[in-house]
Amino acid sequence: MPRPLYVARPILPERDDFIRLVDEVWQSRVLSNGGPLHQRLEEALRDHLGVPTGLLFNNGTIALLCALKMFSLPPGSEVITTPLTFAATAHAITWNNLVPVFADIDPRTLTLCPASVEKAVTARTSAIVAVHVYGTACDVEALAAIADRHDLRLIYDSAHVFGSTIDGRAIGTFGDASVFSFHATKLFHTLEGGMITTNRPEDAESIGYLRNFGIKNEDEVVAVGINGKMNEMQAIVGLLNLPLVAPERDRRRRLRAAFGDFLTDLPGITLQSEQPGVTGSEQYFPLVVDETRFGRSRDDICRELRDIGIFARRYFHPICTDFGPYRGKPIVSTRPHPHAEIVKHRVLCLPFHGGVDDEDVADIRRVFTR
Ligand code: T4K
């Protein structure tokens, strides 16, 4: 593929198909507020994701804000989350006047470590926000047990797990709510967009109020809602992209195998291991570089790739506890030194999308095996 080669490349529908649906919008002049294309996409996604409740949002961050708002958590109460995530996860907690408390990650999966979560629980804890980071599923059973034991709400940031299942069950049905991102960099996207899913049909009404200013009808406003509405242009892209997801995922599966061919046995390189019973989303391809065993650091590799026009990304470095607003906050861990502090210097996401061709793979292979 022509360089530069980026970590992500959005799928795009045929331009003519897009224009055809844009013409429908020009005819109707319905541009937003739950138009017909929005309704069609919402239904199609509920079906595709296998969720009883699924409401579209204008982006994943607003969806996260609203998912937290749903539960009227006590202001100032603590919400346990992972430091190894995109800024939006922690910021959504803070924007709700809640206090993020960071717990360590499991070295094997890089998702929240349940034992560290348990250790972080205090009398002030009201919820857990766990992230299925890179597409790896959290330990949903252990987290549910902790949430039950301490009467906490459990919300999943599912931005990276579009279409995943755990033992045949849709990933968006775990916990009290799940939040997807449909940003341009995601496997399935609507330019910008997101969705809250839950396993309870009765949640649709309250999520709908949060998304649309709390408006019930022309005479009544019943909640402090926000403007989280997706517009018809986003919905067009979503409707046309949905059938493109399966072939794109297949291309990424083949790419994962091609990367695995030369990375699996390299000393000092660790890949995400397959999770029995979990169908992967194929969102990211992270690897962990142990400099002492590999001989070069993650940053060396990143630089060498950049020198040939390949822009791998150090997601998620810096981690949340390095950001100004959270600097100095501890990472609660059952280990002497939090694993998140170690892995942030070692993790690298390779370009992972259908545009990465054999020549790119060969170039990446040369950088790793020279
Ligand atoms: N929770 C988690 C765990 C998340 O990862 C995210 C978002 C959220 C919540 C919040 O969801 P949203 O509110 O975003 O729906 C990107 C994305 O902006 C962000 O959505 C994503 N996570 C995060 C992991 O990655 P950047 O700053 O890395 O994006 P950027 O612009 O550097 O894009 C990466 C590469 O993708 C570019 O080098 C080129 C390519 N690209 C990007 C865009 C935007 C394209 O080819 N076309 C494009 O339009 O944050």
Number of strands: 18
Helices and strands: which structural class?
Answer: alpha/beta
- Overall form: globular
**Integer-rounded radius of gyration:** 21 Å
Q: Give the domain tally.
A: 2
- Our count of helices gives 13
Indicate the proportion of strand residues: 15-25%
- CATH homologous superfamily of the largest domain? Type I PLP-dependent aspartate aminotransferase-like (Major domain)
What CATH first level of the largest domain would be assigned?
Alpha Beta
Mean pLDDT over the full residue set: 98
Please name the CATH architecture of the largest domain.
3-Layer(aba) Sandwich
Strands across the major sheet, in which order? 2-10-9-6-5-3-4-17
**Termini separation (Å)?**
22 Å
Could you tell me which ligands this complex binds, including any ions or cofactors? Answer: ligand T4K
CATH domain fold name of the largest domain: Aspartate Aminotransferase, domain 2
Largest sheet: 8 strands, mixed
Helix content: 25-40%
Low-confidence stretches are none
